[in-house]
Amino acid sequence: MSAAAVHSLWTTAADPISKIETPKIEYGQLSPTLIVIGGALIGVLIEAFVPRKSRYYAQAFLSAVTLAAAFAAVVALAAGGYGTTKAHIAAMGAIAVDGPSLFLQGTILLAGLLGVFTFAERHLDPLAHGNRVDSFAAQAASVPGSDSEKAAVKAGFTTTEAFPLLLFAVSGMLVFPSANDLLTLFVALEVFSLPLYLLCALARRKRLMSQEAAVKYFLLGAFASAFTLFGIALLYGYAGSVSYATIAQVVDGTVTNVDPALAGTMGNDALLLIGAAMVVMGLLFKVGAVPFHMWTPDVYQGAPTPVTGFMAAATKVAAFGALLRLLYVVLPGMRWDWRPVMWAVAIVTMLGGAIVAITQTDIKRLLAYSSIAHAGFILAGVIATSRDGVSSVLFYLAAYSFVTIGAFAVVTLVRDAGGEATHLSKWAGLGRRSPLVAAVFAVFLLAFAGIPLTSGFAGKFAVFKAAAEGGAMPLVVIGVISSAIAAFFYIRVIVLMFFSEPHPEGPTVAVPSALTTTAIAVGVAVTLVLGVAPQYFLDLASQAGVFVR
Amino acid sequence: MNPVNYLYLAALLFTIGATGVLIRRNAIVVFMCVELMLNACNLAFVTFSRMHGNLDGQIIAFFTMVVAAAEVVVGLAIIVSLFRTRHSASVDDASLMKL
């Protein structure tokens, strides 16, 4: 009797192990994200192994190179046709490589690159014990004003961890608009949010405000992401899958193999409606739309200004990308349900942001409320539910992110003894003292206001045109009215800068190094080029405006 | 037992957590309430997984746990640094910035 036969006397053969399919990952098409994650991990190693003196240079150089390489990868993919003809779903259905995701990834990477430039600026603050210092705390763990902090400042410490944190945030943002299932969406949301919470707490000056902003952002952000997660759970319960394509099929009623459990849950509209509402709520929190905007002014004001600029630009791009994909790919079958709600949100966001901004006296809070109003304008394009809607939102996001980073970079320059002079009264007469800085800031404000020959006008025109063609004419009227209200306070700042007497003990304008100068110059250049000759970029956005499903 | 009952429990836990976030004043307790909400989500995921007979929900529950752990690391760091500066973890005291 053979060994196998003896064996069979007291055992039975288990079912053969069914073969687990080897996951197929298209590394080349995911290379932008992978490059950024790799750079961030190397950044962590630099923190561990490189001597403190050379860490700043190593980190700044590594971050800039990483983001530039990732941008080159995005351009290569787009040139290879992955944005148009070869658009498809990669990584076993987790990531969509298509026009909108490549366009938004490119925008986020450029915003991140300019963000690195403003992060690395070390010429604005006066020397501390002979060391050049940047906007970040000497040592985040030490209590402000304590002996340990004084020792850290004296030793010339800087929080170079800000650079890897920025890279981790960028990697999450790259995945967020291209996520093609709800789990990837949630993980990407957390991957880009958690580093931002930390970055907010790292200000060198005004640490109390900075820490307060971080706590508020963290608690509200965690609260919102818990809502998103419960919404994902309900959508999973409704469709039996977290894949965008499957959920879309179940919503449309075109799903082929319906098992009894799915037949039971897909008849339950409460799961779908509440689940979709909660997920959309989490995304609206991230874009800062009005019922969920309360964190925006405090966080924008308290965070270190380079972080604010990066966060304001890149988060909005990533979150609107994810919102577009969710509404256009997963939930187009229930657009008659979500459109009225988004109408209401867009109206209160546009009007609320513009009206409350009028009463602000702090320049960073003013820009925060202006960013809320802009979220409303972009929502008007989202509501269009057309191909033009997608491309106009893409164009608007690209234009808006450069203006925002540039504007916050200018805010870092205007300083007095306590650091940045953000109170509006201190900006009086800035145009007489430093005409160039004031003129540059005026260009950004005019772009925010949507004056012709700036990128803001081209973006607003595209978005409102798409909304009007999508049947949202009342929304366009309200949008134009709130643009007019918003123009009032932008112009008021310009008048304040150029036509009022400067304070004798007013703030001085610091002379930046080439880094911040580059960030501001790129901001101005993009603002003017997109304003004067927008057609090429509108065509680019329009080519990129098709989602893959 | 009908698995739908677990969904009701998940919704109840989620509501308790959300109420806690809104009414409690200590940042640590607020944060614990957020964790309760995440655990309610996990319960819902596992229950739906059981109802549909696929494993997606159970796997997502693991991801949620990892994310919650990462959130604890970041959140406690921020709350502790605020506490050391202010000697208070109350979310009402932190009100330097107002309209």
Short description:
The complex is a heterodimer of chains A (549) and B (99). Chain A is mainly alpha-helical and 549 residues long. The mean pLDDT of chain A is 92.
N-to-C SSE string of chain A, H for helix and E for strand: HHHEEHHHHHHHHHHHHHEEHHHHEHH
Q: Quickly count the domains of chain B.
A: 1
- Number of helical segments of chain A? 22
DSSP strand (E) fraction of chain A? under 5%
The largest sheet of chain A is:
3 strands, antiparallel
Give the helix level of chain B as a range of percent.
over 70%
N/C terminus separation of chain B: 52 Å
Looking at the structure, what is the overall shape of chain A?
globular
The number of domains of chain A: 1
Number of strands of chain A: 5
Cα distance spanning the termini of chain A:
58 Å
Strand content of chain B: under 5%
Please bin the fraction of helical residues of chain A: 55-70%
Detail the topology: elements first, then pairings.
The complex is a heterodimer of chains A (about 550) and B (about 100).
Chain A: H1 3-10, H2 31-49, H3 52-79, E1 88-90, E2 95-97, H4 99-119, H5 147-154, H6 162-175, H7 182-200, H8 207-239, H9 244-252, H10 260-266, H11 269-287, H12 295-302, H13 305-330, H14 335-358, H15 363-383, H16 387-413, E3 414-416, E4 419-420, H17 430-433, H18 435-449, H19 455-469, H20 473-499, E5 508-509, H21 514-532, H22 535-543
Antiparallel strand pairs in A: 1-2, 3-4, 3-5
Helix pairs in contact in A: 2-3, 2-6, 3-4, 3-6, 4-6, 4-13, 4-16, 4-21, 6-7, 6-13, 7-8, 7-13, 8-9, 8-11, 8-12, 11-13, 12-13, 12-15, 13-15, 13-16, 14-15, 14-20, 15-16, 15-19, 15-20, 16-18, 16-19, 16-21, 16-22, 18-20, 18-21, 19-20, 19-21
Chain B: H1 4-23, H2 27-52, H3 56-86
Description of the molecule:
The complex is a heterodimer of chains A (549) and B (99). A three-stranded antiparallel beta sheet of chain A has the order 4-3-5. Chain A has a two-stranded antiparallel sheet with strand order 1-2. In chain A, α19 (455-469) crosses α21. Chain A contains 22 helices and five strands. Chain A is globular, with a radius of gyration of 25 Å. Chain A is mainly α. Chain B is elongated, with a radius of gyration of 17 Å. Chain B is mostly helical and 99 residues long. Chains A and B meet through α7, α8, α10 and α12 of A and α1, α2 and α3 of B.
